[in-house]
Amino acid sequence: MVPKQASNAYFQAQASAKIHPAKLVHMMYERLLLNLACAGEGLEENDLKKRGENLSKAIAIITELNCCITPGDESEPAQFLRGMYAAMLIELGKVAVTKDAAVVRQAQRYVSRLKEIWEETAMRENGLAVERKTERPTEDAHEQAAMAYPRCHEKEGAVVANLCFLV
């Protein structure tokens, strides 16, 4: 059983290494939106486990996105993103106590808009096609995001388009 798990981990690592850095950021935004939606559902259903797991995953992704901003970049977009991510981290951290679903919905709106901007700039500049989805991302996209997320921070200087991320 262990050799099979090791083999699967190896092939997943190989697959995620082939994903373009701009696509990795896009996938992180998609996964973040999914986690925020599930955290909101957990709040509505009063499901502590669902709320807690998805809030912590959302916070981890926001932290990773914040870390992907080029260090030392003091441009207006970089400062805006750092401020936006910091505000979301602070407010989402309070949700477990306040149980304020409005905070989660506001974070979803911010992330949704950031994702749209990313698609309009970074994805197009790198020649990456973006499927327009009106509903939740497909399970395949979720699996890709889940596979790619742990490896994103390992890409040295790899994640920026025009916004100030490392590419």
Which characteristics define this entry?
167 residues, mainly alpha, Four Helix Bundle (Hemerythrin (Met), subunit A)
Strand content: under 5%
Order of helices and strands: HHHHHH
The biggest beta sheet is recorded as: none
DSSP E strands, number: 0
**Range of helix content:** over 70%
Q: Which CATH top level class fits?
A: Mainly Alpha
Derived structural class:
mainly alpha
Please, how many helices? 6
Task: Provide mean pLDDT, rounded.
Answer: 80
Summarize it:
It is built from 6 helices and no strands.
Descriptive report:
The protein has 167 residues and is mostly helical. It has a single domain, classed as Up-down Bundle (Four Helix Bundle (Hemerythrin (Met), subunit A)), CATH 1.20.120. It is built from six helices and no strands. It starts with a helix and ends in a 15-residue tail after the last helix. 32% of the residues are buried. The C terminus is likely disordered.
Write the layout of secondary structure elements.
Elements lengths: L1 H16 L3 H24 L3 H20 L8 H23 L2 H25 L13 H14 L15
Helix pairs in contact: 1-6, 2-3, 2-5, 2-6, 3-4, 4-5
